[in-house]
Design goal:
Two copies of one chain form a homodimer. With about 350 residues, chain A is α/β, with parallel strands linked by helices. Chain A has helices at about 10-15, 30-40, 80-85, 100-105, 105-130, 160-180, 205-215, 235-250, 265-280, 305-310, 320-335; strands at about 20-25, 45-50, 70, 90-95, 135-140, 185-190, 190-195, 220-225, 230, 235, 255-260, 265, 280-285. In chain A, strands 3-2-1-4-5-6-11 form a seven-stranded parallel beta sheet, sandwiched between helices.
Amino acid sequence: MACSDCGYDTAHRFYAGRRVMITGGLGFVGSNLAYRLVELGSPVLLVDALLPDQGGNLFNVSAIRDQVHLRIADLRDASTMADLVPECEVIFNLAGQVSHIDSMRDPLADLEINCRGPLVLLEACRLHNGGVKVVYTSTRQIYGRPASLPVAETHLKQPTDVNGVNKMAGEWYHLVYNRVYGIRATSLRLTNTYGPRQLMMHNRQGFIPWFIRRALEGAEITLYGDGSQLRDLTFVDDAVEALLLAGANEAANGEVFNLGGVTPITLRDLAGRIVELAGGGSVRCVPWPSEKKPIDIGSFYADYSKIRRVLGWEPKVDVTEGLQRTIAYYRAHGRHYWPTVPEMARDHDPVPLRA
Amino acid sequence: MACSDCGYDTAHRFYAGRRVMITGGLGFVGSNLAYRLVELGSPVLLVDALLPDQGGNLFNVSAIRDQVHLRIADLRDASTMADLVPECEVIFNLAGQVSHIDSMRDPLADLEINCRGPLVLLEACRLHNGGVKVVYTSTRQIYGRPASLPVAETHLKQPTDVNGVNKMAGEWYHLVYNRVYGIRATSLRLTNTYGPRQLMMHNRQGFIPWFIRRALEGAEITLYGDGSQLRDLTFVDDAVEALLLAGANEAANGEVFNLGGVTPITLRDLAGRIVELAGGGSVRCVPWPSEKKPIDIGSFYADYSKIRRVLGWEPKVDVTEGLQRTIAYYRAHGRHYWPTVPEMARDHDPVPLRA
């Protein structure tokens, strides 16, 4: 492990031999975290329910399959949690339903996954392993449309869909259990995380993988409006480092931290960059459909100075490098992420609602 | 109806013949609202699940029992909601689990009642009656420990228990459905509401009724600390007027409003006033138990200038008058609210956790 020059040494050393559980461990961020933890010498337990249409994908861990423990199980099952939680020193609680569109189509399913799940896990911690540390992944979606930029942690929370409400609640359960029961917990508010191993089967879980898939298919990327909305992107390796720092650092307990990106970029420039790097596809701007305009949140980028100050984290991978690595990954492994039969590639919906 | 001099004429006239549903209609605020709506000529449907240990009490509506429709039913039952919601023009969504202590003892039950319930109701509105107006009762508990006083609606939300988290989510579901689907919704953040028809069976649903019961029983009222924490109290008739205004006024759509009291009062003064007006009981201050001190929120009183400005509401009943009316009610009807057999009156826990 050549970590001595990366500035994160202490956190990295912390995980050697440390028993870690990752919920949502077959998903996008969870599997990338698992690779890193295996490198760092941590015995890793992956828990994933492999819910249909979610990001869990066995291929995501194929290269470390014999170096991790895997339990296909649902966070909402209290008995399973009572079985697994006592064995852990750190839990990365990443399981969740992340589609904003799906949360409006089936709000009760989103409630079950994003509220009941974390509560069952935290109850298991309280009852069976009060000494565990929990790191939760929240989302910038809880802020809604920014009143000012960049958005700091103290910005008013105004979630614009059921998923945002439930993720806000999920975050607060962790903070309440930290405060009332002393179960050490930290919440990271992720922005637009992207990179290898992200779901690409449909366009309801983030616009970046969808843009990449469209470009790799030589298809058109459609943007609402003039594409001038700014976004900050976090490459998944940077998000993983933030998780590791939060899990290892006592100063993170009871705190929430924004993540962020190196430099905000407009959706138009992002789509153009993807088309350029992928060597295929095209970009077209169309007017906002009237029924979708009310949920446009405009530009968003986060103020991540708090996590830089407290944990020493900052994003290191810029958009070009991150996209190159992501595109290379999907060029090699795309068939594990979306069907290639022509009739499945017809879907050409514009960028999903909450880009 | 002699409303012409009360300043709320328009709202009052709005309800004549207006079909109204009250969820939690057998509870404290719900039943008081029902009396007022019957006076105003509204056909009222009360929905209440009569969940054990909650505030639903058939005696609460005994005097108007033949003037209202009553359905013992659970908000979480989608079929029942599909049956009832289409018939309503205004829904006062008051059903909820209100005990902070119970929410920590059984967080999943609180989730079911306070999150699933509102979501099922709102889905019924979306599917079967998009033109309905919904008024939701939220709580000042979502603010947590105030950073400054008085607390305005824009104050950071920092709920300190699971109930506070779930009520915050319940409020946001309403705002999201207002914004995304145009289902007109308003949330009122109630402070310490008190008055006739409040649960007095146990001390886990608010300290004011508990103080009153103790005084009426000639027992000791125990306060943590020196009792100098300030609280603002809303007499239930004032809360009912705020609900009526919110339900009748289009300017309330998509908005949240704090309620508040005429003048903040310390817990010590409040307990003393209750003992004086009830002519019995006594007050004793004890040190904060160490395990409860972390959840002391200090003083709290709300800034209600927004609802005064937008809806013209302000609290009118001061603490002395409100307590007199409340004490008179329980002196006459106390046997319907708590058992009088001696062994049931032993419980002398201090003021509940979140006074």
